[in-house]
Design brief:
Helices cover 45% and strands 14% of the residues.
């Protein structure tokens, strides 16, 4: 029997709910000489509906380790979080110490809930400033990822009244804000939105829930982010 609409929303997880995966924080400890990496975000960072090893920050860490740099990864992320909810989660379990690398991917839930783009700009500016502070005040040690386009997923086509084009236009508006603010702040920016739209013709890029990215999609994100992470780690591309 098909679940009611809002029950499906709650369990599939762009919506904030108790059934979503959470890490606040989760850390993989390596020797003290390792690169300390803090990944901030929502379901896309925690890897809703995929194995922990397939999360893109975990895959990125593995790529760095394959190039000779050990990584101590901490993730603060939860399915359904908006920018403000990410900050609330950080306050509940603050990061310990400073970090060599910080990644930030946040905003899809602000868009999904019909949030105002102007308010998102203010909230994102605040979270970006905090990210830079966690990265020892070094903007180039922060990497912002664009919001992927969930409008191409089977879930959106089945359960959302908007068209894929409408959702895509909203995602573009939010991404215009986070890109502009990232460039102003001097942080690095990685655009994963185009590859996320490849899922429209490649079902293997979508997880079993029909909404979130698969491990293969996350592999693509990790590879796109790798050059920026290598520059932070002081490794050759």
């Amino acid at each position: 029997m098909r679940l009611p609409f809002f029950a499906v929303l709650a369990c599939l997880g762009i919506f904030l709910c108790g059934c979503g995966s959470m890490s606040t924080p989760t850390s993989t400890h390596n020797p003290s000489s390792s690169l300390r990496y803090l990944a901030l975000g929502d379901s896309y960072t925690i890897g809703e509906s995929v194995d922990a090893s397939q999360r893109w920050p975990v895959q990125l860490s593995k790529l760095l380790e394959e190039r000779g740099r050990q990584v101590d990864l901490t993730m603060i992320a939860r399915t359904g979080w908006t920018v403000n909810e990410l900050w609330q989660g950080i306050q509940q379990s603050p990061p310990q110490g400073s970090y060599d690398l910080v990644t930030l991917l946040i905003g899809v839930n602000d868009e999904y809930r019909g949030g105002d783009v102007g308010q998102y700009r203010k909230d994102f500016q605040f979270m970006l400033d905090k990210s830079i502070a966690y990265a020892q005040g070094k903007p180039q040690h922060v990497i912002v990822l664009s919001i992927p386009d969930w409008g191409v997923t089977p879930y959106a086509q089945q359960y959302d009244p908007r068209t894929a084009a409408q959702i895509g236009a909203e995602i573009d508006a939010f991404n215009a804000v986070n890109k502009e603010e990232s460039l102003k702040a001097g942080v690095q920016y990685v655009d994963v939105t185009p590859v996320s739209r490849s899922a429209a013709s490649d079902p293997g890029l979508i997880a079993a829930d029909g909404l979130h990215p698969s491990g293969r999609m996350y592999t693509a994100w990790a590879q796109l982010t790798l050059p920026a992470a290598l520059s932070v780690a002081g490794l050759a591309p």
